[in-house]
Amino acid sequence: MAMLGALLVASSPAAAEETVSFPSLDGPVTGAKPTMLRALLMKPDGPGPFPAIVALHGCGGLFRDGALVAREAAWAQLLTTHGYIVLFPDSFGPRDVTTDCEGRVRAWAERSYDAYGALRYLQARSFVIADRIGVMGWSHGGGTVIFAISPNSGARPADLPKGDFRAAVAFYPAWCSRLSTDWRPDIPFLLEIGARDDSIQPAPCIERVEAARAAGAPMEIKVYDGAVHDFDWPDDKLHTITSPSGKVAHYGVDEEARADALIRVLAFFDSRLQP
User: Fold this and answer.
1) For residue 23, what is the enclosing H or E element?
2) How far is it, in rounded angstroms, from Cα 231 to Cα 224?
3) Is 55 strand, coil or helix?
4) Omega before 173 cis (within 30°)?
């Protein structure tokens, strides 16, 4: 835990926050004008330019009681303290969705386009190193990551003159079973998942990543033996949630797994995004 404490000691002032807007690239999905997204932009102190992370919220949405949810806020603190810009697109508010734990907003459709809209937005900012941008997401947002980085992702613009995402991380992603068996992303990818996750069921995720890695894809995986869904959510005591369909699943922090994840994910991004 000493290493975790060292990670969380700020080496710079608190991150500056602002709300920004930009279009999703979801015109092909909506058949109309792209959805205009609102997002929370968090920056380290100083003029930059900095590497950046597009961070994709879970099925409960980006805000709770008007504030950034605790899990995402903790990651933003860690990443901005260590020199990253973090951009949190709100995929639900502009679509009049409060929560989406039943999968109304499809990660392989709308939200993948949101991720690339966020990439475009960041690449146009002078304070961002345009070719050093990563993406990460949790659960619903993690599902978005695995579809967005697929080689055949329909959301990926044909023209990316400043480059694609350079690294990707997904925590306990939803819908792994929907991935094709030949899923082989070229983007370096880290899967973080609990072995006891009975919300999304880890087996399909682990199988897809292991198969991709065996075929030469740049994959990394960490399975935490005792962890359940939301294991990196600070101070979230173990509890159960019953879905509208009657499914009961466990959620809550695993302090050892969370401490490892903070170190592992930061090292993964540092090795690929820091100049």
Assistant:
1) strand 16-23
2) 9
3) strand
4) no
Cα–Cα distance, 17 to 69 (Å, whole number): 15
Give per-residue pLDDT as tens, 74-105.
Answer: 999 999 999 999 999 999 999 888 787 766 65
Amino acid 62 reads L
Provide the whole-model pTM. Answer: 0.93
CB 145 within 8 A of CB 111: no
From the DSSP assignment, how many helices (H) and strands (E) are in the chain? 7, 12
The packing angle between helices 112-123 and 140-148, to 10°, is: 70
Amino acid residing at 254:
D
Q: Are 165 and 136 a contacting pair, CB within 8 Å?
A: no
Q: What's the Cα-to-Cα distance from 186 to each of 64, 110, 218, rounded to whole Å? A: 35, 22, 7
Burial class (CB in 10 A: 0-12, 13-18, 19+), 96: exposed
- What six digits make up the tokens of 54? 């597009």
Distance CA 71, CA 273 (A): 22
Question: Other CB atoms closer than 10 Å to residue 32's CB: what's the count?
Answer: 8
Gap between the Cα atoms of 90 and 69, Å rounded: 12
CA dihedral 40, 45, 47, 48 (to 10 degrees): -80
Whose CA is closest to 121, among 143, 113, 95?
Answer: 113
Q: Residue for token digits 């294991």?
A: 231
Q: pLDDT tens-digit profile of 7-19?
A: 554 444 457 899 9
